[in-house]
Specification:
By secondary structure, the protein is of the alpha/beta class. It has 18 helices and 11 strands. The strands form 3 sheets. It has a 6-stranded parallel beta sheet with strand order 3-2-1-4-5-6, sandwiched between helices. Strands 7-8-9 form a 3-stranded antiparallel beta sheet, covered by helices on one side. Strand 2, helix 2 and strand 3 form a beta-alpha-beta unit. The relative contact order is 0.17.
């Protein structure tokens, strides 16, 4: 059986920033997913985010990209001095880039061989695409019965909507999120990010981990000897999983959760409150004892008593309570609000933009801003790039960013030589035919 061996290269820059939060040096400590081999056929966000999570915690991830163009994410949003998107450098961390044309028989044959000895395959194509290419689950289980075949799509692999194309923007609507994410009386809005894609990637990573554990459960009990399984992730279901009590509330009370702007329905007080100079602060004073401390801090003891004792009571007086808090915060800066509320242990915080996040001492102390080198540091080329760390933090087996997202096809030769045993002449021939390239 072919074996996909971990690729080592001095060209790949080591993560520069570490944190005292982790028990061990995150670049040399053992990783929980070391030895797990992943073949990523995804593109854009959902599939690649799953691969990023697995790679951060030690999995060996080989990313298959189309020759010449690569993953479209490489050219999304701002492009850096090398013509690549910093977003891709972040999402592509710890991966090896291999260019193979899946539209060709030879290209698909190469991928099929690579899939023979990996633990996990990730794909987020439209349902049916992989089967059309002869790379569906049943095509691969014949030679790799322990494969965790991870599929991310808009609506899942089954059901009447399964064949529909589905981007996160659309699936967030079906999952119920877009309906409640609005100001009452106004059109639904979307967050300025693909939330559904990222959540789907996280659910896919969870499915992979559960399935890796499940292989031990299936060993010896599967009638056909198969210990792998399909992980079927739908973007809309990933959103639905986050939608709290909307389904049981509708079932029992025929109540449809409505948009609530900056508040949360049925929880008081928790809101965004105005401060000086057009700034805002978030205050969560909805715990019963926290609420009393908050009212005392803003000198509104008149709003403490039997009528405000529990959340159920306070919901009836939401407008009055929020108004009182707003009157107090409007006379102060966010920093002044936080200083006062920290004294009485009331949860409150600023609304951060990217600059605030990068400069915050707590975020940096936790190691959540990492710096990697893009380019060839041994040749004095490239630039430093800040990217977000990943959570959770594991104290004894922490994850780490070992290198930024690679150049297109950077690892094609090495992977095909080391994993498939191809000769340099065979690789040269494949390049000349346009099957692979760098």
């Amino acid at each position: 059986m072919l074996r996909l061996v971990p690729f080592q290269s001095s060209k790949l820059p080591i993560r520069l920033s570490l944190t005292g939060t982790r028990r061990f040096n995150s670049t040399i400590a053992p990783k929980p997913l070391e030895g797990i081999r992943v073949l990523e056929l995804g593109q854009l966000i959902a599939g690649p985010f799953c691969g990023s999570i697995l790679g951060y915690y030690g999995a060996d991830v080989v990313k298959i990209e189309p020759p010449k163009t690569g993953d479209p994410l490489r050219k999304w949003r701002h492009l850096d001095e090398d013509g690549e998107s910093p977003w891709f450098r972040s999402l592509g961390r710890n991966k090896k880039s291999v260019c193979i044309d899946l539209r060709t028989d030879q290209g698909r044959s190469l991928v099929k061989k690579l899939a023979q000895d990996v633990d996990v395959l990730i794909e987020n194509f439209k349902p049916g695409t992989m089967e059309k290419w002869g790379l569906g689950p049943e095509d691969l289980y014949a030679t790799n019965p322990s494969l965790i075949y991870t599929r991310i799509s808009g609506y899942g692999q089954t059901g009447p909507y399964s064949k529909r194309p589905g981007f996160a923007a659309v699936c967030e609507g079906m999952g119920g999120f877009r309906y409640v994410n609005a100001v009452p009386g106004q059109a639904p809005v979307r967050p300025n990010m693909s939330l559904g894609d990222s959540l789907a990637g996280m659910h896919a990573a969870l499915g992979v981990l559960l399935s890796l554990i499940g292989r031990n459960k299936l060993a010896g009990s599967s009638p056909d000897g198969r210990t792998g399984q399909v992980v079927d992730v739908a973007i809309y279901e990933s959103m639905l999983n986050m939608m709290e009590s909307i389904i049981p509330e509708y079932d029992r009370f025929q109540e449809i959760r409505q948009p609530s702007g900056s508040t949360v329905t049925g929880v008081v007080p928790t809101n965004t409150y105005p401060c000086k100079e057009g700034q805002y602060v978030i205050i969560g004073g909805n715990g019963d004892t926290i609420y009393k401390r908050l009212m005392a801090a803003i000198d509104r003891n008149d709003l403490i008593g039997p009528e405000y004792e529990t959340n159920t009571h306070r919901v009836k007086h939401q407008e009055l309570i929020d108004g009182a808090i707003s009157e107090w915060t409007a006379t102060k800066t966010p920093d002044e609000v936080l200083q006062e509320l920290e004294k009485v242990s009331v949860p409150a915080g600023k609304i951060y933009n990217a600059k605030d996040i990068v400069e915050d001492e707590h975020i940096n102390a936790r190691g959540m801003i990492e710096t990697v080198r893009v380019g060839k540091p041994e040749e004095g080329q490239g630039y430093d790039l800040k990217i977000p760390g990943m959570s959770p933090i594991l104290q004894s087996t922490p994850g780490a960013t070992k290198w930024a997202g690679p150049d297109l096809g950077q690892n094609t030769d090495e992977v095909l030589e080391d994993s498939l045993g191809l000769s340099k002449e065979e690789i040269k021939s494949l390049k000349e035919q346009g099957i692979i390239n760098q």
